[in-house]
Amino acid sequence: MIEASAPGKLILTGEHSVVYGFPAIALPVRSMRVFVELYLQDQKSGLCSEQSTIDHRLSLALEQVLPPYGFGVRFRSQIPIGAGMGSSGALSIATLRALEQWDLAQNKPKWTRSKFLELAHKMESVFHGQPSGLDHTVSYLESAIYFQKNKDSTLLNPIATPQFSLVVMDTGLMGNTAVQVAKVARNWPNNTALIQQIGQISEQIHNALKQNDLLQLGSLLNDNHSCLTQLGVSTPQLDLLVETALNNGALGAKLAGSGGGGVAFALVNKPSSSEQNSNVIDSKTEKIMSAIHDLGYKAFVVHIDAQTQP
What we know:
The protein is an alpha+beta fold and about 300 residues long. Helix content is about 40%, strand content about 25%. The protein has helices at about 55-65, 85-105, 115-130, 135-140, 175-185, 190-210, 215-230, 235-245, 275, 285-295; strands spanning about 1-15, 25-45, 45, 70-75, 145-150, 155-160, 165-170, 250-255, 265-270, 300-305.
């Protein structure tokens, strides 16, 4: 048996606009991962029987990359499914990492990045129709990235980020990326200006990260959420979580992912070294989490490590 894993992600900025060639910035959530077990079996390749009824797309996605016969897959996820945290992208990369390990054990060459991303895109297409590629790319690289894709090229650059913490707030409702992307596309004439505005905000957020300006970052996250609300991809639950976090001291907040459900996150001050390496939570963060819990929703803290420019 071979086991491999890959992390989830949060899109800091650029949801929906990234589909139209504007930049997005995504962060890996290394503390939350999908683990895949790859094992040999004397039958058609596919998902293990006890997980085969979870979602029919799982089996279809695996068919894109598994040999026709002889391999079984079992997975476990620390990432909420359908929450905008890249669970399917992480599943894709974890599966491919396990397959690469199998190839290496057979003395086959190490896989290239382009092979990983091409096969991951095939798997992600089953879940999302026309994925931007952002989710599986950040999961593969396990670093914060500036991502921009058009018909001729794809730009994916690791970027510098300061250290900060996010309170992730879960509506408990599953979103559907393909549905939300199609909704925006159907109303494209009315959404063009909003998409362009999100693209501009993403550039400004990139600058705020480079300048380690968390106050400016928080303000821009609020602007981003406003645009996503006007696009029609937010929900009353997401808006309530964002508003509650802001009312309880968050520097900024927005939905994460395609919307229609899933999670939002709130930016809080960067953690101290003791908080970064323990379960200790400062009073401001605790206040936000308590307010979210009082509403009946789940909340947890994700620490984003400082990342230097490669």
